[in-house]
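Re: duplicated header lines in exported structure tokens

Our pipeline writes sequence and tokens for each protein into one text file. With two proteins the header for the second block appears twice in some exports. Here is an export where it did not happen, for reference. First protein block:
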Amino acid sequence: MRILQYEGISRMSKYIRFLTWNRTTHTAIELDDGRVIEAWNGESCKAVRIVDSLHTLHTPGTIVKAYAVPELTQLQSDLIHAWLLQQVGKPYAFWKGCMRFVTRRDPQPYDPQSFLIEDYQPKKWFCSCLAFSALMQVNFNLLERIAPWRVSPGHINLSPRLKLDEVITVKADLSDLSVFSKAQSLQPKASPHA
């Protein structure tokens, strides 16, 4: 499993960069088989989706930094995968996600010393919030004392628990632009990183 950090070049990415003061505009999780789960706000999908490739529907030329999570065990990775599959299809939190960085408004009471991920059950997801929450499901905190809804894509890069694995430039992916639903079979594929 890897954390993907996109430095987007689309109009939407420029907007997110402006709101969050960071070059990183999108976060996704790449599964061991190469598929990607992300909270996505595009013309064809405004929800948590699972796709075949980190290139799918992203603007060609976008830089993606893929980070390994060396301390993550295989059991933790499997549990995160299962939890993420339960999120597929939930709507994307555009206004509440992006505007939270401007308004600094918390969606619920928050004490950084006593916060439990079980107390946070949003109906919509912002990309970095989804990835951060997924890791918290297995008590793996990328950053300490911060709530998932306060995490912008650029915050993820600050984690000392991530190791830069690869820098990739997005290519046009015309082979498969479909979005998988929960109802479809999600059998593992051979891992390209094995």
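Second protein block, exported in the same file:
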Amino acid sequence: MARFIKPDSRQGFASSGWESRESIEVPIMKKTSLPAPRKGTRLTQISRGSVVGVLLVLQCLAVVSGAGVLKDLQQWVQGSALIFTGKVVKLGSNVSGIKPSDNPITVEVEHVESGNDEALKEFGSLIGKQVTVIVNPSFKAAPKLQPGVSAVFFVNPLLYGKNMAVRAEAVVDTQTVKDLAKLVGVAVEEIRKKPLKDALKIADKVVTGVVVEVRPLPDEKLRELQKLANGRYLYSEHSPRWREAVINVQAVWKGTAVEKKVIVVFPSTDDRMWAEAPKCTVGQTGTWLLHVGAQLAEDRAKILLTPEKIKGESITAYTSLHPQDFQPKDPAGNNEKLIQEMLKKGPP
């Protein structure tokens, strides 16, 4: 048995980075013959665990032609941490520990089409650098990846030392598909927008406004919460430490009720359980995607989302706990425009 790094199901543009690979046990494949890297090879987080195991479970390289590209493009983009255009400079590897029998090729990066933020931060500018791309020796398809051939490579990392080795999920000859780089850009943009689209669909209300006050929960709500599980919910290690933000509403983009103010109940802790939930500060401006209870257990929602009186006026309370539930105001107003466009288009 060998250990290899299993790509996070959220990899690519839905993932925060490469470091979240899970180590699992798999049988060694007989067709490979890769030894361990030479002593002294520097490994980063992407190769945590046994690099030998990673290279022993190479996946099939897909070299495709025009008809199949458009159908599968979005899937490749979503499943790849790095996408680049490159030219094959030689048959062979520039990474120690990879044998010729594994059919590697060395590719010079000409242009980075897109990449996971962590990938780009880890490796810096790749333009002009030569990387090893692993090719499954049993795969047969045209065009052949010979020196001088340019292609777009959809890859995930395998090994990083002096040079980098990657596993190609797909390779498309740049001569096969017209405007391939442009199509990749469109697919990348659609994937980046998808989390916000999905969040808008399930939001009960969408408002633009400004935070005018951040305050603790009212004593009455704290007392009710303390009754749940004998107070463990309030004082446990992962307690959200709820606070309230009072928001002056400037515009309503979704939802029928026209409210001048709303309350957003949010977790003030940076504990890992709540780290991605938006936090509110006085003066903060932007657009909130509001929820009336679906983000909380029913007993907690009943307490936390009870309307409150502010200057004699009953104010509705909501949550915005998903990372996409707050979009900050930018100088050009692009975030707000994008939300309006998505809401106008409605469900796909």
